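[Meeting: bench + compute handoff]

Bench side (C.D.) handed over the final construct sequence. Compute side (W.E.) agreed to return the predicted structure before the next meeting so the bench team could plan truncations. Sequence as handed over:
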Amino acid sequence: MSDKPLVVAISSRALFDLDESHRIYEEQGTQAYCEYQIEHEDTPLEPGGAFTLVSKLLALNEGCETHKPNVEIILLSRNSSDTGLRVFNSIQHHGLAISRAVFTSGSSPYRYVSPFGANLFLSTSPEDVRKALNEGVAAATILPAKASQNAKDDKPQLRIAFDGDAVLFSDESERIYKEKGLQAFTENEQQTAKDPLSGGPFKAFLKTLNHLQTQFPEEGSPLRTALVTARSAPAHERVIRTLRAWGIRIDEAIFLGGMDKGPFLKSFGADIFFDDQQGHCDSAREHVATGHVPHGIANEEVE
């Protein structure tokens, strides 16, 4: 694992603000979109929802041997190579070290996630994200942020926050809560406190992040993680024991007992937060960049 970088595949609309361009595509069609992008190909695109995350991920390569980076970012875009020139020009303008890309001229690019060996896929397309999740890749839909993406971030440390059930862990306990209520859930978690939960779609990604953390001194590490969960005592014990059984260190664990997550994520300073439930995502994106993970029972109900 030490020789393999953390690989993140990201769509151009997650990396840059392409809303105006997309409106032209929807209202005027492909030809007008192509003409617009070519006309503006020397006008840099503004940062999108995952821009800060990508910038800080790439910063983890500072001081590395050039042939062994800690992180690699892959661009996956529905643009053609022609209209994608504006995207590459914007990458260069913002000083992002991204060299590998796929342009699919309108078709879904998710099928390239696995060949690149991506540990994470970020997109604005829920359909592409679901397909990637079905292939066993951690994936999330970057939501339109209500928090400002243009505010200057002077915090160099990369901070990533995760929900627990149906994200880091399977949704086995969440199913009990949804189907039988809080009391049954609590009783189950007490009875199974010493039985580790099964892994969820983001277990492998967190494990890779945790391994990456070991490349840096614990004091002053450029990477920090947090678990932000609606669980509370006594349902906390199983979570703690599960992470211990997995051999994963998480830097902060916040057990909220159903309180809104947004203000706590702001206090943590998350560069991105991953959650399976739309309500928690809506609270989070008031304050931080947020990725919705369409996985588990909470998403089956809305299909």
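W.E. noted at the follow-up: Residues 107 and 291 are 22 Å apart (CA to CA). C.D. will use this when planning the next construct.
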